[in-house]
Amino acid sequence: MDLRQLEHFVAAAEEQHFTRAARRMNIVQSGLSASIRALEEGLSTKLFFRNTRQVELTAAGQVLYEKAKVILAAAQDAREAVAAINGLQRGVLAIGTVQSLSAFIDLPELLGRFHAQHPSIEIKLCQSGMGTLMEKLQDGRVDLAFMPLVEPPKGITTELITCEALVIACPPSHPLAERRDVSLHELAREPFVDFQADWGTRRLIDRTFAEAGVLRQTAFEVSDLQVMLELVSRGLGVALLPEPIAIASAAEASGISIGYAELKEPEICWELVVAFAGNLHIRAPKNPAAQAFLDLMSEARNAAETTV
């Protein structure tokens, strides 16, 4: 049986007349009769007593009528739920992010604007490393993830937010401070303060040194940017960071003094992207709320560029 057959059956049961039921369903009577006949054949039982004036439900028909009303109501509820999701009348938007996003994008401000425009959408936010965020993207726990990404896996689509050169963070008195031509081989002699191994920035740095055939020493592994900068400021190691993140974070932290140096060409390009699990044939998120957030973010960036 299918929903259309059940709709025809319920109409006939309530109208107690095939002609009126056909008129109600906006089909010819022969079509409605054929639909009900097919339903009876599929169930191997008669559903109506028929005469020239009206039709009445059999015992089996009465049982089916009660069940059919429940099924059709549930189907209508499902249609309305899907329409509400697509129309942003309900739903959930789950966003994941790495640390120190504020140097590039004002996520709280965007979330506030999104909530004002779509108050019925529940917003969830989590902060983690790239590896964890990627897992959440792939299994559907996160709709959008803001993170540095070297090579997106199959099924993950990315949109570039910014590309920044990595700079060397070190104490202001360090011999490398303020230089603009530091080579990777020179850095091999320095102890490093690094993020954890599954973080996007760490993977980019590890890959760059490996491709250059340069071994380096990771003395500290941390998951907090402020701790990283404090260790660097005390001369315990150097770090490679996107310059806007290093400068913004150092400015926010009291008592931390950081010097900087630049790598010689070619620079290491650190890319911040927004990633999502896309549809098979369309470069867009599966969740309409996620697409609405991307549209809002694009509008904000365009407005900022116009102002500048």
What does this structure look like?
Helix content is 45%, strand content 21%. The chain is an alpha/beta fold and 308 residues long. Strands 3, 4, 5, 6, 9, 10 and 11 form a seven-stranded mixed beta sheet that branches. A two-stranded antiparallel ribbon has the order 1-2. Strands 7-8 form a two-stranded parallel sheet. α8 links the parallel β7 (191-195) and β8 (217-222). The longest helix is centred in the N-terminal third of the chain and has 28 residues, at 59-86. It starts with a helix and ends with a helix. The model has no long low-confidence stretch (mean pLDDT 88). Keywords: DNA-binding, Transcription, Transcription regulation. InterPro entries: HTH-type_LysR_regulators, LysR_HTH_N, LysR_subst-bd, WH-like_DNA-bd_sf, WH_DNA-bd_sf.
Compact description:
This is DNA-binding transcriptional regulator, LysR family. The chain has eleven helices and eleven strands.
